[in-house]
Amino acid sequence: QVQLVESGGGLVQAGGSLRLSCAASGRTSVGWFRQAAGKEREFLAAISRSGTITSYAESVKGRFTISRDDAKNTVYLQMNSLKPEDTAVYYCAATFSPIGTPRFIGAYDYWGQGTQVTVSS
User: Fold this and answer.
1) Rounded to whole angstroms, how far apart are CA atoms 46 and 101?
2) How far is the CA of 46 from the CAs of 13, 30, 39, 54, 107, in angstroms?
3) What is the spatial distance between Cα 13 and Cα 1, in angstroms, rounded to a whole number?
4) How many CB atoms lie within 10 A of CB 62?
5) Positive or negative, the Cα torsion across 105, 119, 79, 7?
6) Main-chain dihedrals φ then ψ at residue 84, nearest 5 degrees
7) Cα distance between residue 47 and residue 28, in whole Å
8) Are 43 and 105 in contact (CB under 8 A)?
9) N or C, fewer C-beta in 10 Å, the chain?
10) ∠ at Cα 93 (72, 32), nearest 5°?
11) DSSP characters for the chain?
């Protein structure tokens, strides 16, 4: 059983930055997803167990950076140049999948409770 707790969400103006944290109880590959109101949950980024492989959705590549600090059992999502369309609930998820950085929701077995990110224009 892996427990995940997200933090770091909040309200920010367009063009600003936020760093989300995902505290994980196990050493797994971790992905970040988001779900805006009335929309499906979408993949944003993932990082392998070793931290050597990362993967990003095209919509956030160059603006978001995923990283991990295994000494703190935490995975981060640094979000820069935020836009109003980035407003959503952000989730981290964990998987023991042999695929280092899966992009599909079904690959993930454990989910955090989500943290709200609101970007004002």
Assistant:
1) 5
2) 25, 6, 20, 6, 12
3) 37
4) 9
5) negative
6) -55, -30
7) 9
8) yes
9) N
10) 90
11) ---EEEE--EEEETT--EEEEEEESS--EEEEEEE-TTS--EEEEEE-TTSS-EEE-TTTBTTEEEEEETTTTEEEEEE-S--GGG-EEEEEEEE--SSSS--SGGG--EE---EEEEEE-
Nearest CA-CA partner of 92 in 81, 82, 77 = 77
What is the residue whose two structure tokens read 């760093």? 19
17-71 pLDDT tens trace: 999 999 998 889 999 999 999 999 999 999 999 999 999 999 999 999 999 999 9
**Rg for the chain, CA atoms, rounded:** 13
